[in-house]
Each structure stands twice: as C-alpha cells, then as structure tokens.
Write a structure and sequence with these properties.
One of its GO terms (molecular function) is DNA-binding transcription factor activity. This protein is mainly alpha-helical and 236 residues long. The chain is built from 11 helices and 3 strands; from the N terminus they run ααβααββααααααα. Helix 2 crosses helix 4, helix 5 packs across helix 8 and helix 6 packs antiparallel against helix 9. The protein starts with 12 loop residues before the first helix and ends with a helix.
Length: 236
C-alpha cells in the first residue's frame, strides 16, 4: 500500500501519474547521477524504506527495475549493491554517447530551448569549479550533455539517456581524482556551445566527437592504472 508523502514532501506534478516504483526508481537513479550512490555501495532495505517512505515490496520492485537497467546487482546472501562498471561497459557507454549526442548536436537549431540549459550547466560547472566542488562539476557536466540530447526533441531518447547518465556517473565514481577528470572539459563545453550558437552545428558535433573520444581514452587509461594497483592500495 502506498504511504502518504510526509508534510512538505508531496510528489511533483510530473510524478503523480506514475506508478510508485517508477517514481522511486527515478529518484534513486538521480542519486546515482548526483554521485550520492557510488560504485559498489551496499543498499540497506531498512534504511531506504525509511528514507523513501515506501514498503519493502515497493523497494524490491525498484531494485528489480534498476537491476534490469544494469545499475544494481543482487548477490545471494549479501544483498543489493550499486554496480561497479568494467572496461567493456565504459567502451559501450561512450559508443552510445557518440551515437546519440553527436547527431543531436549536428542537426540542432542555435535557438533551441535546450541551448539555454546547456549554458546554465556550463555556468554551474564554472561556479562549482571555483569552489572546488568537483562532484558537483561532474553533475553539471552530465546536465550539459543531457541538454545536448534534448536538442533531438525525443522524450524517449532523453529518457534512455537518463539511464546512460547514471551509468556514466558510476564510471566517474571509479576514478579518485575528479578535478583531473572534469577540469579540462568545462571550457571545452563552452567552445562546443559557442560553435552551435554561431550557426556551426556540424562543427560543434565534430568537436564533441573528438572530445568524447579523448574522454574515453583518458578514462580507460585511468581505469587500467587502477586495476593494476594491488587490492590493498585500491581500498585505501
């Protein structure tokens, strides 16, 4: 049975028509995108039921949905954990990103409403960079790329990309130097947006493709170095 929302925590209008399990899955997915739930984290049913104000049956349906999406995994006699991406996952995520983001940008209109969201994400990333809030810089970067997908005007594509974004954040979570990871890309995002607003959508898409290939190589290299470390050093 669905529990009533506590005072002041009523569901937003866009959630009210959704099944409860879908709503809670969306909120947990966002926690992954925001870096609150990190790779390998153990998820406590008791704590989550209390925090989300849902029954165990609902939470188990949420776990089923997110496991199907590849964000969670169940281990017999141990419980449910946030997935830790492997190298093949990283390669696949970046392949998908190039297939979705680059065509969306190449055919975009410079006055599309999502352009303002792209600029807002860059502004947020710069503000967080100045404050040294690198986890939030990563969240702003994900918001920038989600806005690129919105240029395609496809709600289904945007919904699918939300899942990709959650997996991407898990990839980011494998690396322990977020400044080195995110720092170089804040200004590159501004260059890409500048090309688009100047009317060179195809140039912006070409710049984005090169950027994504560079980011993929960087992350794979960092992942390989992490895997070569002795297990006791990785756990420190």
């Amino acid at each position: 049975m669905k529990k009533p929302a506590p005072a002041g925590l009523a569901a937003p209008a866009d959630e009210q028509a959704q099944p409860l399990a879908d709503v809670i899955a969306g909120r947990m997915r966002q926690k992954i995108i925001d870096g609150v739930l990190t790779p390998g984290s153990h998820l406590s049913e008791v704590q989550l039921c209390e925090a989300m104000q849902v029954s165990r049956n609902t939470l188990r349906e949420v776990f089923r949905l997110l496991t199907k999406e590849g964000l969670l995994r169940h281990e017999a006699n141990r419980g449910v954990f946030v997935v830790t991406p492997d190298m093949s996952t990283i390669v696949d995520i970046y392949r998908i990103r190039r297939l979705i983001e680059c065509p969306a940008l190449a055919s975009a209109h410079p006055l599309h409403p999502a352009v303002a969201r792209m600029q807002a994400a860059i502004d947020a990333a710069r503000a967080h960079r100045e404050a040294g809030e690198w986890l939030s810089v990563g969240s702003a970067d994900i918001a920038f790329h989600s806005a690129i997908v919105e240029l395609a005007d496809s709600p289904r594509l945007s919904a699918f990309y939300a899942q990709v974004s959650a997996e991407l954040r898990l990839v980011f979570g494998l690396l322990h130097d977020p400044e080195y990871l995110h720092g170089p890309y804040v200004d590159q995002n501004q260059i890409i947006l500048g090309l688009l607003t100047a009317g060179d959508a195809k140039g912006a898409a070409a710049k984005l493709e090169a950027y994504l290939l560079q980011a993929e190589r960087f992350i794979l290299g960092a992942y390989e170095r992490l895997e070569r470390k002795p297990a006791n050093k990785r756990s420190r």
